[in-house]
Automatic annotation (TrEMBL):
Similarity remark: Belongs to the H-rev107 family.
Residues that span the membrane, as ranges: 133-158
Pfam families: LRAT
Single GO cellular component term: cytoplasm
GO MF terms, alphabetically ordered: N-acyltransferase activity; phospholipase A1 activity; phospholipase A2 activity
Organism (species): Scophthalmus maximus
LRAT domain boundaries: 15-130
Keywords: Hydrolase, Lipid metabolism, Membrane, Transferase, Transmembrane, Transmembrane helix
Stated name of the protein: LRAT domain-containing protein
Biological-process GO terms, alphabetical: N-acylphosphatidylethanolamine metabolic process
């Protein structure tokens, strides 16, 4: 997407979703082709692997040119919760985002990541679709493992009963 076209469409306070392969990074557009975002130290060094973020316990709030943050990755405006949550006033979003620049904040993939940061600024409530999706997938995987274990136990139980019945039948026939 050409920068001038993007700047024309984006409004201050919009959420910017940046696709970085194995995860999405999030920022708040503040105007003038700039964004405010929460950045863990590993991302600053150019690491893009989601696993590297597991070591981070803090992150820094930065204000940067959008093109610097996006690099060669694909991005879009994504005010993902506008249909279910009332966004705060754009001026308040930008004011609060800019006031946080330079601060070091706690960072945790599950509870306080870059998506939580921007959704709290826009909607007043921190939420992360990535975390919610991972929780659903984890729940599905757990349920699948539980069903497999239950199935194996039932099979073993029936198999054991069949073996017992076969032994009893042989003893009677002797």
């Amino acid at each position: 997407m050409e920068q001038a076209l993007f700047d024309h469409r984006a409004k201050p306070g919009d959420l910017i979703e940046i696709f970085r392969g194995s995860y999405e990074h999030w920022a708040i557009y503040v105007g003038g082709e700039e964004v405010v975002h929460l950045i863990p130290p590993q991302e600053e060094s150019g690491a893009s692997d989601l696993i590297k973020f597991l070591d981070s316990s803090t992150a820094q709030v930065r204000r940067q040119k959008l093109r610097e943050v996006v690099g060669f990755h694909r991005f879009r405006i994504n005010n993902l919760r506008d249909g279910e949550c009332e966004p705060r006033e754009r001026r308040a979003i930008v004011r609060d985002a800019c006031a946080m620049v330079g601060r070091e904040l706690p960072y945790c993939l599950a509870t306080s990541n870059c998506e939580h940061f921007v959704t709290e600024l826009r909607y007043g409530k921190p939420k992360s679709q990535q975390v919610e999706a991972a929780a659903v997938m984890g729940g599905v995987a757990t349920a699948g493992v539980a069903l497999a274990v239950l199935g194996a136990a039932l099979f073993a139980s029936f198999s054991s009963k069949d073996d017992d019945n076969e032994r009893s039948r042989r003893r009677r026939n002797r």
